[in-house]
Design brief:
With 765 residues, the chain is of the alpha+beta class. The chain folds into four domains: 173 residues, 2-Layer Sandwich (Beta-Lactamase); 110 residues, 2-Layer Sandwich (Beta-Lactamase), CATH 3.30.450; 162 residues, 2-Layer Sandwich (Alpha-Beta Plaits); 185 residues, TIM Barrel. The protein is built from 28 helices and 26 strands. The strands form five sheets. Strands 18-19-21-22-23-24-25-26 form an eight-stranded mixed barrel. Strands 2-1-5-4-3 form a five-stranded antiparallel β-sheet, with helices on both faces. A five-stranded antiparallel β-sheet has the order 7-6-10-9-8, sandwiched between helices. It starts with a helix and ends in a 27-residue tail after the last helix. The relative contact order is 0.04.
Length: 765
């Protein structure tokens, strides 16, 4: 009894633990504190030992009451509990433990071994792994006196946390806790944190956080690494002064402190930042103080947006808005803006101003022959060459091959005239472009402020009028504006406007010029378009054809000419040939072969009676496409004629590659062939070449008997010119197309076909 009392006094702490356990089960003490929880379990086990020691010294009823209380406390715990002796035999377990693992008193009986208990759990499916390995490992830890915690995922999806703690008097006690929900919440928190980190890391703006006390970096996202040019692991824990030079670091620190002192968010506009790895950058930034519960700043949030590329893009867009993308010269918008500013300045200073409008000569021919790539490079070379002689005058490209200068000084108009002469001289020198030596001149029109115009619009209009006069007077000309030029320009523009509706108003008509063999036999006609203007009368083709080519009206006009010529020729009793010109624009746009086929089909004209005339310019722009089109046209049965041979960039390769049915020598070689030996040599050479190739030759521009005699002697095949008839309405040549055996009347033909010869009746083309 005395011994039992000593034990009671010795274990009064453990008995106090019973009260703690009861309190835990009643919810008065937070059971989630790991350290206190494990100590309480140890004291609980000690209490059990004390209880057994005093059994013989106390009243049995008291002991029974204590046992009841202890059982209530044990069985109302939220954790499963079991205790083992030093040999690994079960001393006790509570109901919660058996419930957690589906055990019964028989499968978890007192005195059974740990190995048996684990084997039973294995059989119940509440233990994964090797029971023997688990028991051996646990016993080894017990012998070493080690605290042991295990977290295991069960097959049914639950997660259990097991704590094994050795006790002083031998054996150990184990607690089991279902932490499934806790693990689930922890996992959700971890996933949420990972998601937030992922979002922050992928925000395109740089985000960094510093502690408010020392301003050391504690968080930096990926964009922050890119902006600073330093890996984040080298920045975390460091201050800005430890990472960057003194000057930028001092500026950044001052802004940080300003925000922390005021405790208000602040935005900082565009500012430069010298990154040691990325050079000078342009930033926008915002600083936000993060306050703690006490109202004092705990952290400083910094958001930085690098707008360097954006500013560069804006600058490029602004540049493109005022500069020509091909030559990088100021464009028309920049020219107009500069002219307006210069006019305002000249008006205040009572100073003169000159506008020089420049248009390149022969540029269209170069573009057609060599292609647009060569034409573009030529423009770039001109853009480099002209400013070199302009002495700082404002220079712009205001159109396709149109340029302009603005000159404002006290030496006008002399200085403008001198500049124009220098520009002409500069353009006269050949330009080397991709192995081609190109000659391109220019025409220049000049208008002066204030005499030729007091405002921007009139000054530009008058400079344009002067340019038009310069082009009309011949290539390489300089013209100053005169009062009558404005009227001429307005008339030209009005004519160009009227041309756009000439087809709709049925103002276009066809004239026909005879084609003859060299012996005088008429074999067909060439269809030539004329414009019968309602007020101006018959407009010369040299005036409106260039307008049509510039405006693109040549395409619908060319189709009308082809269809009308086919329709007219199909009505002739005599099967004479009809020759029609096609422009290079028609080769580049639309379905040319389909159009020709449609014209033949709709008119009923036999394909072999149609001759299509093309110039070499259509072959140079896109050789392969042109060759394909010519071959497809030939497959229809029509004849292909090379027009104006020798005036452009003639190539013997073209004669070899393209299946031409005839070659036409330009009138410029025929005009003085009987008196100019070089022309005669060229004509003989061309005729001989074509005869060797089996290609007939037609010479145009025959106006005299001597020319015809020369061509007959040179064995030319066919001729055309005023000597046989001028372009006239087809009614003038009614006798020929009807097959009547009469000579042409005066005015219908220049004269009878050839003296002493009668025109033969034709029965076949």
């Amino acid at each position: 009894m005395l011994s039992a009392m000593r034990l009671l006094r010795k274990y009064n702490r453990e008995m106090a633990a019973l009260a703690l356990i009861a309190a835990l089960s009643a919810g008065y003490v937070a059971f989630s504190i790991p350290e206190y929880h494990d100590n309480a379990i140890i004291t609980l086990i000690a209490s059990l030992v004390a209880l057994s020691s005093i059994t013989a010294l106390t009243d049995r009823q008291t002991i029974r009451d204590q046992e009841v209380k202890l059982n209530v406390a044990l069985n109302n715990m939220s954790q499963g509990l079991c205790m083992f002796d030093a040999r690994g035999r079960l001393l006790l377990c509570n109901e919660r433990y058996m419930e957690m693992y589906g055990l019964t008193p028989e499968t978890a009986k007192i005195g059974g071994t740990l190995r048996d208990l684990i084997a039973n759990r294995k059989a119940m499916g509440t233990f994964d792994g090797d029971p023997d390995e688990y028991v051996d490992n646990l016993m080894e830890r017990y012998r070493l006196g080690k605290y042991h915690t295990i977290t295991a995922d069960l097959a049914d999806g639950r997660t259990m946390k097991m704590v094994n703690q050795p006790i002083a008097n031998g054996g150990w006690v184990a607690t089991h806790e279902n932490v499934t929900e806790l693990r689930k919440r922890e996992k959700e928190i971890a996933e949420t944190r990972q998601f937030l980190e992922l979002v922050i890391d992928n925000v395109p703006a740089a985000i960094s956080v510093k502690d408010a006390k020392e301003l050391r970096y504690i968080l930096i996202n990926r964009a922050g690494e890119e902006i600073y040019g330093i890996p984040r692991e080298k920045m975390i824990g460091k201050t800005i002064a430890e990472l960057f030079p003194d000057k930028p670091a001092a500026v950044i620190n001052a802004r940080d402190r300003q925000v922390l002192d005021t405790r208000t968010s602040q935005a900082f506009g565009e500012h430069k930042f010298d990154s040691p790895h990325r050079g000078t950058r342009t930033h926008l930034s915002r600083r936000v103080p993060v306050l703690g519960n006490d109202g004092n700043p705990q952290y400083l949030l910094l958001v930085i947006q690098d707008v360097t590329e954006q500013k560069e893009a804006e600058a490029r867009i602004a540049h493109l808005a005022h500069h020509d993308p091909l030559t990088d010269l100021p464009n028309r918008a920049a020219f107009n803006e500069h002219l307006a500013q210069t006019l305002e300045r000249c008006e205040k200073a009572d100073q003169k101003l000159a506008v020089l409008c420049i248009n390149l000569d022969r540029f269209k021919d170069i573009n057609d022959v060599f292609g647009h790539a060569i034409g573009d490079e030529l423009l770039c070379e001109i853009a480099k060459r002209l400013p070199a002689v302009a002495d700082g005058a404002f220079f712009a490209r205001i159109g396709g091959d149109e340029f302009a200068f603005i000159v404002a000084d006290d030496k006008l108009p002399t200085s403008a005239d001198w500049l124009a002469e220098c520009l002409l001289a500069s353009a006269a020198e050949p330009l080397e472009v991709q192995g081609h030596s190109l000659h391109v001149g220019m025409s220049i029109g000049i208008a002066m402020y204030p005499g030729d115009g007091a405002d921007q619009a009139s000054l530009l209009a008058n400079a344009d009028a002067a340019l038009y006069r310069a082009k009309a007077d011949g290539r390489g000309s300089i013209r100053f504006f005169k009062a009558d030029m404005d009227q001429q320009l307005r008339e030209r523009r009005a004519l160009n406007h009227d041309l756009g509706s000439a087809l709709e108003r049925n103002e276009l008509v066809l004239y026909y010029q005879p084609l003859a063999r060299v012996d005088g036999e008429i074999i067909g006609f060439e269809a030539l378009v004329r414009w019968q203007h309602p007020t101006l009368g018959l407009v010369p083709p040299g005036m409106f054809i260039p307008m049509a080519e510039e405006s693109g009206f040549i395409i619908p006009m060319g189709e009308w000419v082809l269809r009308e010529a086919c329709r007219e020729a199909a009505s002739w009793p005599q099967p004479l040939r009809i020759s029609v010109n096609l422009s290079s624009a028609q080769f580049r746009h639309g379905d040319l072969v389909g159009m020709v086929y449609s014209a033949l089909f709709d008119s009923g004209l036999a394909a072999e009676r149609l001759e299509i005339k093309i110039t070499e310019s259509v072959l140079v722009d896109d050789f392969d496409r042109a060759l394909s089109l010519v071959r497809r046209l030939k497959s229809l049965g029509v004849h292909i004629v090379m027009d104006d041979f020798g005036t452009g960039y003639s190539s013997l390769q073209n004669l070899q590659s393209f299946p031409f049915d005839k070659l036409k020598i330009d009138r410029s070689f025929i005009s003085n062939v009987e008196t100019h030996p070089p022309s005669a040599t060229i004509v003989r050479a061309v005729i001989g070449l074509c005869r060797g190739l089996g290609v007939p030759v037609l010479a145009e521009g025959v106006e005299r008997q001597t020319q015809l005699d020369f061509l007959a002697g040179a064995a030319c095949d066919e001729v055309q010119g005023f000597f046989f008839g001028r372009p006239q309405p087809i009614a003038v040549y009614a006798a020929i197309v009807n097959g009547e055996d009469t000579a042409g009347e005066d005015g219908g033909m220049e004269r009878d076909l050839i003296p002493g010869k009668r025109r033969k009746k034709r029965t076949a083309a």
